[in-house]
Amino acid sequence: MALVQKAQKAKEQAYCPYSKFRVGAAVLAIYSTVFLTGCNVENTSYPLGLCAEMTAISKAVSEGYISFKAIAIASDLEDCFISPCGACRQFMREFGSQWDVYMSKSDGSYKLMTVEELLPCSFGPDDLRKGKNPVGNSKL
Ligand SMILES: O=c1ccn([C@H]2C[C@H](O)[C@@H](CO)O2)c(=O)[nH]1
Ligand SMILES: [Zn+2]
């Protein structure tokens, strides 16, 4: 599967001196044939580390793409489909719930789920618009 192969290739750039856990991701935008890829980028200050999915999505957004068809994730795990962390699920959800997440094993086999399936009952951009309080915080 081409998108999984792009994610596997992106994994080679992983900057993960602390976890030694390489992850790559590739996103495909709607109406596009361009793949944007990313890897995890860790930091000496551990909590600042970025996941591969966030890197790939941020690269895509910064190139002008905000509607996505699919994202693939790759790691070195042989017996386990790499699963996006909770933060990445929310990061994906920002750009819609009805798009595909290909979670792969190191041999390229994959499990496919939608963002909606990975993050049900999610909080998204529409909810924020609905929740606008016209009065604001009167204590301020
Ligand atoms: O789906 C995942 C899971 C983990 N990681 C990264 C974060 C950290 O750098 C390393 C270990 O958690 O793997 C990702 O990039 N994506
Ligand atoms: Zn993550």
TrEMBL record:
Family statement drawn from the similarity comment of this UniProt entry: Belongs to the cytidine and deoxycytidylate deaminase family.
Pfam families linked to this entry: dCMP_cyt_deam_1 (PF00383)
Catalytic residues as annotated in Swiss-Prot or TrEMBL: E53
Cofactor(s) this protein cannot do without: Zn(2+)
InterPro entries cross-referenced by the UniProt entry: APOBEC/CMP_deaminase_Zn-bd, CMP_dCMP_dom, Cyt/Deoxycyt_deaminase, Cyt_deam_tetra, Cytidine_deaminase-like
This protein's record includes keyword Hydrolase: yes
Protein name: Cytidine deaminase
EC number: 3.5.4.5
Catalyses which reaction(s): cytidine + H2O + H(+) = uridine + NH4(+); 2'-deoxycytidine + H2O + H(+) = 2'-deoxyuridine + NH4(+)
GO BP, sorted A to Z: nucleobase-containing small molecule metabolic process; pyrimidine-containing compound metabolic process
GO molecular function: cytidine deaminase activity; identical protein binding; zinc ion binding
GO cellular component: cytosol
Binding-site list for Zn(2+): C51, C85, C88
Top EC class of this enzyme: hydrolase
The CMP/dCMP-type deaminase domain, residue ranges: 1-126
Organism name: Sinocyclocheilus grahami (Dianchi golden-line fish)
